[in-house]
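One such given next:

>
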Amino acid sequence: MKRCDECRKWINRHNSGHRLNCERGKRISVGLASMAEIAKAAIRKIKPEKTYWNGEPCIARIVRVVVGKSLKPTWWCANLEGTEREAVEVKYHDEPFYLDNEKNQGWLKVTLGFGSPQYGHRSLPVERVIENNDQTNS
């Protein structure tokens, strides 16, 4: 048995091949887990998470985008124009906008952070969406 550093749950391990997702988002290495644990992890992967903006439910999905022109040359993403990045597309009151998600901070903001201003984010100007990563919530 191994205790996860994030959620403090005990996890079975008998072999060093499998990886499951911790409920708090951290990937942990475990051994050959029980079928029940593998099933729970798979359900967490396919079950859409609830997403929020300013504490209200919203539609959000993880997408791959081409970064557009920044509003100002001093903006954090000014040198990223034309590059591909992972982003979170948030539709709040039917208005889409994008959050940078290269380090998963955008997705954490709209799920665990309930879209609160207390969780920081980096807005991203988007030229076009090129790929949907099928992690969507409505």
In short: The two ends are 37 Å apart (CA to CA). Confidence is low (pLDDT under 50) at residues 14-21, 23-33. Helices lie at 35-46, 105-110.
